[in-house]
TrEMBL record:
Pfam families: Tetraspanin
Organism name: Mesitornis unicolor
Subunit: Interacts with claudin-11/CLDN11 and integrins.
Protein name (database record): Tetraspanin
Main function: Regulates the proliferation and migration of oligodendrocytes, a process essential for normal myelination and repair.
Annotated keywords: Glycoprotein, Membrane, Transmembrane, Transmembrane helix
Homology family: Belongs to the tetraspanin (TM4SF) family.
Bilayer-crossing regions: 12-36, 48-71, 83-107, 208-235
Length: 253
């Protein structure tokens, strides 16, 4: 590869170790974002195993911080043992992120079935006079996603809450945000959100899972480049007796 190639590899490797620290923070943020968002929609999504990709990606983010520290020390001192350890750990993390991507796609495909299975039960359990956690979740989703009912506002007519209130109206969370005098009455359907919540909840949860997938793919590619550069440095050190260390005082260990 020539001296130019080995110098470039060392420079890129130092730069990548700094990226690993930034990546650690970003991955932990993505994982935390998934947890926070899941908490808002957990009544519509009963399979807690869907959080496995988020748990793994937070663990990977924490490990990347340690990897960045090991990589910086190993690269600057150019320790053969340190670089070899660095490559092995990166390989394990790379495999883990591939697993995250696979699980992400599996659970992303299950989102629609999960929501379809649970959303009817959640709406039937709505109690507007004494809101419980499920009721608050419905009101939150309807306001945030600007939707009403499962497929449309008419779905409320089949709920226990609607039959008990007997006022021919839907929850105020169905009212369009721009209207201050909306009472939720079905006699004024133009005041209500027309789109159902099921499709929007599915879309939101699938988008969140895609954040995890893309984050894992992006940093897996960076780690692959890191492994390549470290391997180039290791191979050149082993074969070239005239190899020069990046800094004076480095070790050949």
């Amino acid at each position: 590869l020539g001296q130019c190639g080995i110098t470039s590899s060392k420079t890129v490797l130092v730069f990548l170790n700094l990226i690993f620290w930034a990546a650690a923070g970003i991955l932990c943020y993505v994982g935390a974002y998934v947890f926070i968002t899941y908490d808002d929609y957990d009544h519509f999504f009963e399979d807690v195993y869907t959080l496995i990709p988020a748990v793994i990606i937070i663990a990977v983010g924490t490990l990347l911080f340690i990897i960045g520290l090991i990589g910086c020390c190993a690269t600057i001192r150019e320790s053969r043992c340190g670089l070899a350890t660095f490559v092995i750990i990166l390989l394990l993390v790379f495999i883990t992120e591939v697993v995250v991507v696979v699980l992400g796609y599996i659970y992303r495909a299950k989102v629609e079935d999960e929501v379809d299975h649970s959303i009817q039960k959640v709406y039937n359990g709505y109690n507007g006079t004494n809101p419980d956690a499920a009721s608050r979740a419905i009101d939150y989703v309807q306001r945030q996603l600007r939707c009403c009912g499962i497929h449309n506002y008419s779905d409320w007519e089949h709920t226990v809450w609607f039959k008990q209130t007997k006022n021919n109206s839907v929850p105020l969370s169905c009212c369009k945000a721009a209207l201050s005098n909306c009472t939720g009455s079905l006699t004024h359907p133009m005041d209500l959100y027309s789109e159902g919540c099921e499709a929007l909840v599915v879309k939101k949860l699938q988008e969140i899972m895609m954040y995890v997938i893309w984050a894992a793919l992006a940093f897996a590619a960076i780690q692959l480049l890191g492994m390549l550069c470290a391997c180039i440095v290791l191979c050149r050190r082993s074969r070239d007796p005239a190899y020069e260390l990046l800094i004076t005082g480095g070790t050949y260990a």
